[in-house]
Amino acid sequence: MKKINYPVVEETLYQETLDNGLRVTLLPKPDFHKTYSLFTTEYGSIDNKFIPINQKEYCQVPDGIAHFLEHKMFEKEDGDVFHIFGKQGASANAYTSFTRTSYLFSTTDQVVQNLETLLDFVQEPYFTEETVEKEKGIIAQEIQMYQDDPNWRLFFGILNNLYPNHPLHVDIAGTVESIQEITAKDLYTCYETFYHPSNMNLFIVGNIEPNAIMKVIKDNQLKKEFEPSAPIKRDLPSGTEPGIIKESSLTMPISKPKAVLGIKGVTPLPTTEKEQLIYKTAASLLFQLLFGSTSQNQLSMYNEGLIDDSFSYEFNLERDFYFADISTDTKEPERFVKTIEDILLTAKTSPDVTDERLALLKKRLLGKHLQSLNSLEYIANQFSQLTFETVTLFDLTEIIAQIQLADIYQVVDTFFLAENFSHFFMYPEEVKE
Amino acid sequence: MSISLVPGVDLHVIPTTKYKTIKLYIRFAETLSKETISQRTLLSNLLETNSLNYSTQADISKKLADMYGASFGFQVSKKGDSHYLTLVLNIVNEKFLPHHENILAEAIDFIKEVLFYPNRSEAAFDLETFEREKTNLIEYIESIYDDKQSEAALKLQDLYFQDNDQQTPSFGTIKDLEKVTANSLSAYYDWMLANNAVDILVIGDVDEEELLSLVKILPFEPRTSPFSPGFYHQPARQNLLEKKEQQPVVQSKLNLGFRTGIYYHETDYFPLQVFNGLFGGFPHSKLFMNVREKESMAYYTSSSIDTFRGYLTVQTGIEGKNKERVLELIQEQLESLKHGDITDEELLQTKEMLRTHYILSLDNGSALLEKSYLMSKYPKACLSDEEWLACLNQVTVEDIKRVANQVTLEAVYFLEGSLSYEED
Known about the structure:
The complex is a heterodimer of chains A (433) and B (424). By secondary structure, chain A is of the alpha+beta class. Chain A contains 15 helices and 16 strands. The N and C termini of chain A lie far apart (63 Å).
């Protein structure tokens, strides 16, 4: 077990990759009562075409299956896993994203027992045709609930424009129709392929003694047999392949129109994790320079009534794709996206993008980063997204300090390309065209 | 530690080395009143937008960025008979900063500026800011009703409570907001600053003496008869109230309002906690297990309690055609608790979850500040952790039956979705 000290943030990490390929990271927080544990597989909603383990041919599975599988993991022959965690004083949960599925518990005692439960329930699947059929109703309800959420629809509206030929545009839960096709056999196929320990990582933060906990994990894993690990072959379009829908719209029962401008990244990303983290941090600083609460741009748009407090922007980077979306509720959706485009295309000469402002926003980012380290959940979620071969969350203080205006310009040059901008609008139903 | 700065203005400090930050609340409390709720919400928006010497929100943001991304804002909320307007500030502890800058003193100076020197001249708030924030707030309130889960909860509250003040959402109403002017709000601000009960609460690795000397620069005047928070009691209704509305959404919402008559740290407070956990508070609860899991009748279903108003609600997201069946199922779950149909395992598990939630809250800075505030206002809440856990542990099935028999359904609100998924 490797021990790594981070004196600047007063943290110590423990890491080891087990013989079966499972990567384990431990972060003791002796002042806390809580222990939070996150067990993650690199398998998400976009992984819908792949070669199943021990087979030769690609197979295509129904949309929404990763999320469906996550739901079904909790049901076992002898009952509901939530129940077991509950009895052990823990609360459990799970979530599925585009590229990952995570299972977690948080507890204040019986850490060992809860940890064994977590490892065992995720590593011992139980699916039957009957329980799969029953779940379809529940998930259909969940999909319908998302369908009623205007901001969710807005997000997938712009994703559909940016990634018309990539499974990113499909709702993580799939559609009411696609989930009807899911069978227990499909679930086993996905499970066997993607839940191999070598495709997973375990992160535990909280009131733990690292040596004792590592022993528990190793003993637990030694009792189980796994196939030899092999790289997973996915068949996915490249996440940076050009080609977008320039504009589309939708009507919904909302009070004020919504507009979003999306930017698709088409320049291939740097290959090392550290370079990607630098790119991500620079992009995040760039958006704060241009659109953040200290920017002249945001102030002018706000004062003109073009945006309101719903204005938001985010930059996403995962695996081989990256995109940004900038959105607001506004009475002038067309003018909003035009204004944003002008700002993006003149970014390098913007009075908001200067050395002085970059220094201020680096200070801000550093402070926000340190503040977020109060949250064990935040730490765990961030760690589950990195492979740590070259870099960890605790290196971020150093990376923020390094970023120069040149890094910012590089993001402008590689990312702000007009042909990759798309618009999506949502109008109240009264003004239906 | 609690110290009175001047009559009606108290400082509470919780020193701890657990966090990388220092968190500070300044809470203004007064009697909940429909007349002032909307004014307070608008005021909180104005005060966080700009001030006399930070004349734009970008100036405020720059100052916050310069204090290493300090977070600052106002929150409005209500509890029982009280309305709170709370300034919240969170800064990084200087020991983690590259040059160990003393940003705590800087932050208190900043608070003094934004709280005591707002952007107004003569006796009116800056008109441009005022009009813009008013318009934005009206639109924000409209957007809250875009979220049907929130809308259903607010409509149920409106139906259940008889009193206008209690019916009003914590952020106010558009109608009341429309009546507020830059002059009337300025007068209200002066009144609030001089008369509301004020509590300053701080948690983090701080020196109490240093903090005391720092907050003394805030020019609070003594209050003659500061407000003291309490409960809200409503007489029982004789008949069940029902209301149904239709909207063009897919999922229907069925929300139920019950009277409990049980209050924060008063008789049966702990049995009520356990009752709620068994009824719909947790994933192993009767509502979740039977309505959602066993019958697949709802995407979500849960219950929650408001012990400052003796109120309990059940919220569900369902298919409209199942309304009667869901209503029946919810009542069956309550009946089974009235009969004490509770296994040892269920009871143990519920207590275990409540215990865990309590201990988890001890890790959360905001929760600790809130707890310290409530203890100072509701002395019966002053239990040590051991005492609190012992009270929980003592709850018996008989206690839960007694509580269940006291819980009475008084209002049913149904928001029926008129769309089906296929048509959408």
